[in-house]
Write a structure and sequence with these properties.
The complex is a heterodimer of chains A (144) and B (150). Chain A is built from three helices and five strands. The model of chain A has no long low-confidence stretch (mean pLDDT 96). The longest helix of chain A has 16 residues, at 62-77. Chain A has two domains: 8-25 and 60-140, Hotdog Thioesterase (Thiol Ester Dehydrase, Chain A), CATH 3.10.129.10; 27-58, no CATH class. In chain A, 23% of the residues lie in helices and 32% in strands. Chain A has helices at 27-37, 47-52, 62-77; strands at residues 20-22, 82-89, 99-111, 114-124, 130-140. Chain A is an alpha+beta fold and 144 residues long. Chain A has a five-stranded antiparallel β-sheet, with helices on one face. In chain B, a hairpin with a 5-residue loop joins β4 and β5 (138-149). With 150 residues, chain B is an alpha+beta fold. Chain B contains four helices and five strands, in the order βααααββββ. Chain B has a domain at 7-21 and 64-149: Thiol Ester Dehydrase, Chain A (Roll), CATH 3.10.129.10. The mean pLDDT of chain B is 94. Classes of the chains: A alpha+beta (144), B alpha+beta (150). The A-B interface holds A 3, 22, 29, 32-33, 35-39, 41-43, 49, 52-54, 61-64, 66-68, 70-71, 73-75, 79-80, 82-89 and B 25, 28-29, 31-35, 37-40, 49-51, 55, 57-59, 62-63, 65, 67, 81-94, 96, 143, 149.
Amino acid sequence: MKYAKIYFDDVTVGAALPPLVKGPVQQIQLTRYAGASGDFNPIHQDEEFARAAGMGGVFAHGMLSMGFVAQAVTDWAGAGAVRKLGVRFAGLVRLKDTVTCRGRVLAKSSKDDVHTVELEVWAENQKGEKVVTGRATVALPARA
Amino acid sequence: MAIRINRGVVGKEFPPYAVTVERGKIKEFARALGDPNPFYLDDRVGAASEWGDVIAPPTFATTFRDEAGAAALLTELGTDISRLLHGEQEFELFRPLQPGQTYLCRAKVVDIYEKTGKSGPMAFVVRETAITDRANELVATMRQVTVVRL
């Protein structure tokens, strides 16, 4: 069930998050994301501009892919659970690319009644190339 | 001929700027990501939640933009927008951002370093932003690494 509540007690180190498949990425989503985020860099909108910049054409905002990764984490851990999310943009996401977001539990710890889980997170395109790599920390409720 | 990056901007602090989060902006952002989570989109779910209202997705603080500061930084660095790539991004969230709240953002250039990658020489500009609420409590921090293709 989507958005089912997950408890700290039930998380095992090494467990995989359910993969989240996003896309294929279309120009309209980049335009919509530009409006929503305020990032109107023409490199994500204007094919000629992107080619002239030496990028070989339009590519997606890194922050769109990071938002996808964040969704994979919150679909699993719950909205509001993310304490930290840090990523490196390892590759460009192009139009028509499919982005699959994945994660894995690295560690869990409890301190002062705050129960946190460390995750490795990443996103890959349809060729299996990593486009985002990173780490996340989420706080989860413990069973009473 | 590679462009020289102006390392003199390390330590530069931008003028603080305030942002009031609009309910519609949170929903627009979640929808643009294609994230249907009801804790972002449904006011009734938000009202019944532990936060008492909808919350923003984890990366929402990226919308807290300082256009004037960013433009001034590009000029001071001696580059332009067509040379930029987003290298890294990190958010630390002490609690979720919420509609109707006014936050103060204080951004600073903390480091600039150069590396040569497979596509040539690049400079990495590291900015950190502290986001506080009206009570001056830290709500979130952002760390952004912008890559300048030299």
